[in-house]
Amino acid sequence: MADLDVDVVVIGAGPVGENVADRAHQQGLSAAVVEAGLVGGECSYYACIPSKALLRPVDLKAAVDRMPGVDAGPVDAAKVFERRDQFANPDDSGQADWLDGAGITLLRGRGRITGERAVAVEHADGTTTDVAARYVVVATGSVPTYPPVDGIADVDAWTNREVTQASHVPDSLLVLGGGVVGVEMATAYQRLGSRVTVVQHGERLVPGVEPEAARRLQASLEADGVDVRLGTSMTAVKRDGAEVVASLDDGTELRGAELLVAAGRRPGTADLGLDTVGLEPGKPLDADETTTVQGDWLYAVGDASTGAKLTHMGKYQARICGDVLVARSKGASVGGRYAKTATTTEQTAVPQVIFTDPQIAAVGHTEASAQQAGLHVRAVSYEIGNTAGGSLHADGYDGFATIVVDTDREVIVGATFVGQDVADMVHGATIAIVGEVPLARLWHAVPSFPTMSEVWLRLLETYGM
Ligand SMILES: Cc1cc2nc3c(=O)[nH]c(=O)nc-3n(C[C@H](O)[C@H](O)[C@H](O)COP(=O)(O)OP(=O)(O)OC[C@H]3O[C@@H](n4cnc5c(N)ncnc54)[C@H](O)[C@@H]3O)c2cc1C
Ligand SMILES: NC(=O)c1ccc[n+]([C@@H]2O[C@H](COP(=O)([O-])OP(=O)(O)OC[C@H]3O[C@@H](n4cnc5c(N)ncnc54)[C@H](O)[C@@H]3O)[C@@H](O)[C@H]2O)c1
């Protein structure tokens, strides 16, 4: 006999888990969420929110510094940290109250699957709550990966948690990994006054984006004074007094006050009882377009699943998952391209903004990924600084846009915007891709003068319209 019987139990109350519970509960299902740490998850306290709170002030200062006639003065790091704390204070009582107000049961403790439709929650006081549920949703997020570097476990390396919650700027910071976390935090800390070195074993930074976007970002980081080491791996690290000493495979030795490990993340599925239902612990849960993992009872969303590791995509999966549970509870069918119960956009139009300077805002395919997918494409690019809107926005505006056009269907399948303040420009491209808007129709979508969106017109003209 279970202690609690609900329609839906969600393991993990990050942004994604909370959304599944809310969506299902709002449509009549009873729901409980299990949380071992803070309600709100990694994103609220140790990832998206604090990292952007650190980046916004330095981004704004750089923009002002590029504008003749205005003066930003120096950045006050203490005030930046103080403002970050207002956004990401690790106190989850507000979020817990929200769950309570929404009528969702919060079970604080570690959840483990004990069999089909069964979850046991171990509380901090050693007691256990057994939950029986018609539907079990795994939303346990992800944890940092530690690459095989000798001594890495013994140097008190920073992860995303320490780098986003720090309240001092180290004199120098070594960053292991030139992916999204690495480049965003390199931007923030270099501009807050640290001397940053990024060690990236690939041939370029942020490998998933258009190569020219990565080149512009590298040039900008280097102009800021960041030491970027590409094609290099760290082989060993050790502490020497207050410093971390890192050995690289090219024989070089680096020293830094702190080491940030930003080498990717793995799903939080290692200690979840997956073996009790025949699944392999530690792997991302392979969810289909309806977020289903097994039978009609086990689901996975967010970083714990095989979907894109981004908050907005996790929350998209969460909305779909909630609707799938409600549909199934009524015996209705689910799935189908662009149905409300299918994560179609995961395959066609995943957007991401990298909040560096320049920002990189991209959606859908790059030219290379489209070709790998077997599409016939043509990519065209245009400098945003050559539009009136861009040139007014900042002197010598450095940035560009690229669209990738499927030449068989004459629709856009990918777009990238690079430059100052381009973050919000990507949503227009997302709409064009999801709506499969033909170029002939897009031609009639007139951008306002003088805005940076004029680049859309120039891209279409460059394509030959
Ligand atoms: C530094 C950094 C910056 C980022 N910036 C952005 C950004 O700007 N935009 C963006 O879209 N994405 C960003 N991301 C990615 C984003 O943080 C994740 O995609 C998002 O947090 C995933 O949400 P989630 O709910 O799946 O997992 P999480 O946010 O990780 O939440 C999972 C929750 O599950 C809990 N949990 C785990 N196991 C158990 C268990 N067994 N029992 C009970 N509870 C459990 C955890 O305590 C946690 O609270 C960033 C990531 C990092 C590291
Ligand atoms: N703005 C955003 O949307 C945002 C911001 C931060 C993080 N995130 C998400 O969080 C996730 C994790 O980010 P991340 O940066 O940790 O992972 P990542 O996979 O984006 O990048 C990790 C990088 O580390 C490099 N690397 C791995 N092992 C290495 C080694 N031994 N030596 C040198 N380099 C090594 C890889 O080549 C890769 O480029 C990503 O999925 C990302 O999309 C998103």
UniProtKB/TrEMBL annotation:
<dbReference type="InterPro" id="IPR016156">
    <property type="entry name" value="FAD/NAD-linked_Rdtase_dimer_sf"/>
</dbReference>
<feature type="disulfide bond" description="Redox-active">
    <location>
        <begin position="43"/>
        <end position="48"/>
    </location>
</feature>
<dbReference type="GO" id="GO:0006103">
    <property type="term" value="P:2-oxoglutarate metabolic process"/>
</dbReference>
<dbReference type="InterPro" id="IPR036188">
    <property type="entry name" value="FAD/NAD-bd_sf"/>
</dbReference>
<feature type="domain" description="FAD/NAD(P)-binding">
    <location>
        <begin position="7"/>
        <end position="317"/>
    </location>
</feature>
<keyword id="KW-0560">Oxidoreductase</keyword>
<feature type="binding site">
    <location>
        <position position="111"/>
    </location>
    <ligand>
        <name>FAD</name>
    </ligand>
</feature>
<dbReference type="InterPro" id="IPR050151">
    <property type="entry name" value="Class-I_Pyr_Nuc-Dis_Oxidored"/>
</dbReference>
<keyword id="KW-0547">Nucleotide-binding</keyword>
<feature type="binding site">
    <location>
        <begin position="140"/>
        <end position="142"/>
    </location>
    <ligand>
        <name>FAD</name>
    </ligand>
</feature>
<dbReference type="Pfam" id="PF07992">
    <property type="entry name" value="Pyr_redox_2"/>
</dbReference>
<comment type="similarity">
    <text>Belongs to the class-I pyridine nucleotide-disulfide oxidoreductase family.</text>
</comment>
<feature type="domain" description="Pyridine nucleotide-disulphide oxidoreductase dimerisation">
    <location>
        <begin position="350"/>
        <end position="456"/>
    </location>
</feature>
<feature type="binding site">
    <location>
        <begin position="177"/>
        <end position="184"/>
    </location>
    <ligand>
        <name>NAD(+)</name>
    </ligand>
</feature>
<feature type="binding site">
    <location>
        <position position="303"/>
    </location>
    <ligand>
        <name>FAD</name>
    </ligand>
</feature>
<feature type="binding site">
    <location>
        <position position="52"/>
    </location>
    <ligand>
        <name>FAD</name>
    </ligand>
</feature>
<dbReference type="GO" id="GO:0050660">
    <property type="term" value="F:flavin adenine dinucleotide binding"/>
</dbReference>
<dbReference type="InterPro" id="IPR023753">
    <property type="entry name" value="FAD/NAD-binding_dom"/>
</dbReference>
<dbReference type="GO" id="GO:0004148">
    <property type="term" value="F:dihydrolipoyl dehydrogenase (NADH) activity"/>
</dbReference>
<dbReference type="Pfam" id="PF02852">
    <property type="entry name" value="Pyr_redox_dim"/>
</dbReference>
<feature type="binding site">
    <location>
        <position position="264"/>
    </location>
    <ligand>
        <name>NAD(+)</name>
    </ligand>
</feature>
<dbReference type="InterPro" id="IPR001100">
    <property type="entry name" value="Pyr_nuc-diS_OxRdtase"/>
</dbReference>
<protein>
    <submittedName>
        <fullName>Dihydrolipoamide dehydrogenase</fullName>
        <ecNumber>1.8.1.4</ecNumber>
    </submittedName>
</protein>
<keyword id="KW-0520">NAD</keyword>
<keyword id="KW-0285">Flavoprotein</keyword>
<dbReference type="InterPro" id="IPR004099">
    <property type="entry name" value="Pyr_nucl-diS_OxRdtase_dimer"/>
</dbReference>
<keyword id="KW-0274">FAD</keyword>
